[in-house]
Design brief:
4 helices, globular, Nucleoside Triphosphate Pyrophosphohydrolase, three-stranded antiparallel sheet, alpha+beta
Length: 233
């Protein structure tokens, strides 16, 4: 088994570049109708970030999983619903993530996994969700193969967080995340291996000036970057 070093304190790793030279996805391209059209007739494309250095397990197999990228229809524009994981979890404690998890035998497909896990984690009922399509599978260092499922969400929902797994749910403007000037590249070398990752820190104005930003990074940021590529074609 290969051993890729894990990153435990991403905020401390230097930023080596941003992507201010790349254009943001136009506002007209991230309306509900524009997104429906893009997923119905997607041009050929390849994800910029297919994985983060995933390793092959001793059994030679990986675990299938799905996440939901929920785009909430707000008057001010689409918002991405994200979660902050609880601090006591064994894997990815305290990290920002999409709702989702591993596939179960009863799930008919990756979409079913994403919808079930979202309902279990944050209580978002599938009657509020309009699935648009999926992005390419993303492979993780923890040996998961994750299918991102992109969906529109009607705003008249009430969340019920699984307090064991989810500490908080919050929303970030889609346009902020689809603006590469907000994409920061980090790089570090240790144990003879070089690791690179993206972050997209979000400072919520409602939190006040003294609050720490939400540090969106790793697989979550990479899948958002792939969504950027898909929408900017």
């Amino acid at each position: 088994m290969s051993s890729t070093p894990r990153i435990t304190q991403p905020q401390s790793i230097p930023v080596v570049a941003t992507d201010a030279h790349l254009p943001a996805v136009a506002l007209a391209s991230i309306t509900p109708d524009a997104l429906r059209k893009r997923f119905l007739a997607a041009p050929p494309w390849q994800p910029e970030m297919p994985g983060d250095g995933g390793r092959v397990s001793s059994s030679g197999s990986a675990t299938a999983a799905s996440v939901l990228i929920p785009l909430v229809l707000r008057d001010a524009g689409l918002q991405v619903l994200l979660t902050r994981r609880t601090e006591h979890l064994r894997d990815h404690a305290g990290q920002i993530s999409f709702p989702g998890g591993r596939a179960e035998t009863d799930d008919v497909d990756s979409v079913a996994t994403a919808l079930r896990e979202t309902e279990e984690e944050v209580g978002l009922d599938r009657r509020h969700i309009e699935v648009l399509g999926t992005l390419p599978v993303y492979s993780t260092i923890s040996n998961y193969l994750i299918t991102p499922v992109v969906a529109l969400v009607e705003p008249d929902f009430t969340l019920a967080l699984d307090s064991f797994e989810v500490a908080q749910a919050f929303e970030v403007p889609l346009h902020f995340l689809m603006t590469p000037a907000n994409h920061r590249h980090h790089e570090i070398e240790f144990a003879g291996q070089r690791r690179r990752f993206l972050s997209m820190p979000w400072q919520d104005p409602a939190q006040g000036a003294g609050a720490s930003p939400y540090f969106i990074w790793g697989a979550t940021a990479a899948m958002l970057r792939n969504l950027y590529r898909f929408l900017s074609l």
